[in-house]
Amino acid sequence: MKSIETLTQEAIALLKALIETPSFSSEEDQTALLIENWFTQNNIPFKRENNNVWAFNNYFDKNKPTLLLNSHHDTVKPNQGYTNDPFEAIVDDGKLYGLGSNDAGGCLVSLLATFVYFYSNENLPYNLVMVASAEEESSGKNGLNSVLKHLPELECAIVGEPTLMQLAVAEKGLLVLDVIIKGTASHAAHNNPDNPIYNAIPVIEWFKNFQFERISEVLGPVKMTVTQLSAGKQHNVVPAECHLVIDIRVNDCYNNKEILETVRQHVNAEINPRSMHLNASSIPVSHGLVQAGIALGRTTYGSPTLSDQSVLSCKSLKLGPGETLRSHSANEFIFINEIEEGIQLYIKILTDFFKQ
Predict the structure, then answer these.
(1) pLDDT over 90 at 306, yes or no
(2) Is 304 a residue whose pLDDT tops 90?
(3) Tell me: the pLDDT tens digits for 116-160?
(4) Residue among 46, 64, 65 at smallest CA distance from 147
(5) Per residue in 311-341, pLDDT tens?
(6) Three-class DSSP category at 144
(7) Among candidates 210, 216, 226, 277, which has minimal Cα distance to 251?
(8) How many whole angstroms separate alpha carbon 130 and alpha carbon 48?
(9) What is the mean pLDDT of the segment spanning 21-50?
(10) DSSP secondary structure letter of residue 189
(11) How far apart are CA 347 and CA 341, in angstroms?
């Protein structure tokens, strides 16, 4: 078995290669090849569908529960504020710069190294499956959600996202609504009591003021925000419709279906959800994975940002090296020592969890 030090150096080399290989969402075919090569070099059989690559531990036992290790290899497009080449892996003052270094390349290579560390262990109480997934940044149809049908039932998961290796025990879901308020079109010079823009005012007020009753201990309340408004094409015509976009961050006390039903009960308008599958997720603080992290001095918190946790129905913990505030920023970077610490902590947390 390779040492942790060797795995760490190989993981950092892989991350540099990933940075220098463009992998925008739905265009990750070349980074998928790099991940295939990683498995091949470690003598690990793998499967691939579209740009998702996954593998099971060597001694997979269908009678044991299965734990998922997951992170993504797609990126957003580079921020216009870059002064570095986003596709050049630059190491300077302990930082590794490059697009996707922090979100979520550091997490991905750390989990790949962790998976290799445990791969040949005959006596694991859990099966392990490692999925390097695509289309996370776009919530696309060919991402982790498309791989789940090929996997056994999952008991729990670690989703690699930059959390400074703290324990994100819950994550808000996302529901985006397109709301259409109807009215009567007319010339602006004539009296019109059915102006859809005016009709939109009480709808906007409802979204501003309504409070969902159930408040999460970790994630707080459901948050609804009107983020876009559009109506009309010229100054002297009252339009027939006013369009709103509503961004709803859902806590773990509700699913998206419940939120949508409540909105439709209260709002007199046409309401169309863009998707329903990006639900909130959580794992009990009492779960062994969380307790293993707490015993190592990690703290728990609730995350407001979305990840591939949203497509999982099992208990899931978001955990990884790097810091979320660096994600999607200009001159994105991750500290080399964050990767080193991340691999060590992933291995220690799983080792302690398996002993429970």
Answers:
(1) no
(2) no
(3) 999 999 999 999 999 999 999 998 999 999 999 999 999 999 999
(4) 46
(5) 999 999 999 999 999 999 999 999 999 999 9
(6) helix
(7) 216
(8) 12
(9) 98
(10) T
(11) 10
Give the C-alpha separation, 316 to 275, whole Å: 21
- E strands, the chain, are 47-49, 52-56, 66-72, 90-92, 95-97, 127-133, 154-159, 167-171, 173-182, 186-187, 223-230, 237-238, 241-250, 270-273, 281-282, 300-303, 315-318, 333-335
Residue in this structure with the two tokens 């400074």, named with its chain if needed: 164
Phi/psi at 285 (nearest 5 deg)?
A: -60, -25
pLDDT band at 309 (very low <50, low <70, confident <90, very high): very high
Distance CA 33, CA 235 (A): 54
- Rounded Cα gap, residues 126 and 68, in angstroms: 10
Spatial CB neighbours of 129, under 8 Å, sequence gap ≥ 6: 54, 55, 56, 57, 66, 67, 68, 69, 151, 152, 154
Instruction: Report the alpha-carbon angle 342-347-349, nearest 5.
Output: 95
User: Domains in the chain, start-ordered, CATH in brackets?
Assistant: 4-171+280-355 (3.40.630.10), 173-273 (3.30.70.360)
Structure tokens at 179: 């709301």
**Please, which residues bridge with residue 328 across strands?**
none
Residue with tokens 């939109």: 200
- How many residues appear in the chain? 356
**What DSSP assignment string belongs to 59-99?**
T--TTS-EEEEEEE--BPPPPTT--S-TTS-EEETTEEEST
